[in-house]
């Protein structure tokens, strides 16, 4: 498979290049050149397949030309060692729980898959020297990437996070790992962390000295696997006798998750429509209303993993729909909720049906409540376990939710971090010394 850039000036790239480089030379995002439809037989039998079998079928469409079947199967099966169950919440509303992986958030799927595929592609390349993954995080990305790459030979991970702005639970998930994971506490904001990572990628001297790549959802290896669980959700609906295409409501920040769902739809997955549920960062919601895309600085909200003012995968959505605002609006509607609405939704849902939503999932649930028509079935993606946001959730619902054992194990580990100023030279000096 070849991958083209959303900016359409860079040459098409091989899978190897797209995965190792992450971003095209013209700063565009890579897109697969073909999206083949899965066979009717696949959809007829989907309810009899396991999650791993379903995922392998999808992975084969994207990666089958470039990765040998046994290897691809191993990568898929190793990634999906956990379930993504569908739970009935309301009359016609289901939660797709994506938080049963190692760090209890949906990013585990893409991060693990990318770690395994990157390792395979690096090995094939036969170049010497480790590959270094730099990732800036406001919490969830860092933990998923660090755990996905933990112990993967030939790859070092540097997680940059802003001092004092990441929750204790999140911080433990990438500072206690050791091995090939280095946590860097930056004396600055999340924007500073992102700026530092960008500077490093553009620094010719540094790139001649060491091999660098990123693990954000711009990377196709992290982004495409997110299509897997949409198919799995559909299979689970069929299993309980619901045959009409569902409405998917996706809590969105950088729009990687929902874009993967749209890819799935293009590959034949029956979907009635999508809802992009935003918090107060409403750039996409405004775009749907006005046709104008106006990125702005992000606002801090209760659903902080969605605090994005310039969603990077917007370029992919525009590319899929060839820039047609009307075509996008036919498939995707929007929603935007401020913190007061998020709180109220969590409280109402807990009081009425006893389900504990995390602040991100709350946006997805609320959008279905407001936009689902009679006779439709809705699925919202519950993107993180509420215990990841225990302090906020307990305060909002007056609960004392239990922290799953997996999360507790991180919290008893020894935290190790290197403190750095937000000055680029400090980061560069450290990276030059470490490699
Ligand atoms: C990253 C994240 C999101 C947003 O996903 P995008 O792919 O960036 O749109 C939503 N919820 C949680 C819990 C996240 O960690």
UniProtKB/TrEMBL annotation:
Residues 2-78 form the Threonine synthase N-terminal domain. Keywords: Amino-acid biosynthesis, Lyase, Pyridoxal phosphate, Threonine biosynthesis. Transmembrane segments: none annotated. Pathway: Amino-acid biosynthesis; L-threonine biosynthesis; L-threonine from L-aspartate: step 5/5. Residues 84-374 form the Tryptophan synthase beta chain-like PALP domain. It comes from the Bacteria. The modification N6-(pyridoxal phosphate)lysine is found at residue 107. Its cofactor is pyridoxal 5'-phosphate. It catalyses: O-phospho-L-homoserine + H2O = L-threonine + phosphate. Its EC number is 4.2.3.1. PROSITE patterns: DEHYDRATASE_SER_THR (PS00165). Pfam families: PALP, Thr_synth_N. One of its GO terms (molecular function) is pyridoxal phosphate binding. GO terms for biological process: threonine biosynthetic process. InterPro entries: Ser/Thr_deHydtase_PyrdxlP-BS, Thr_synth_N, Thr_synth_N_sf, Thr_synthase-like, Threonine_Synthase, TrpB-like_PALP, TrpB-like_PALP_sf. NCBIfam families: thrC (TIGR00260). Belongs to the threonine synthase family. This is Threonine synthase. It comes from Prevotella histicola F0411.
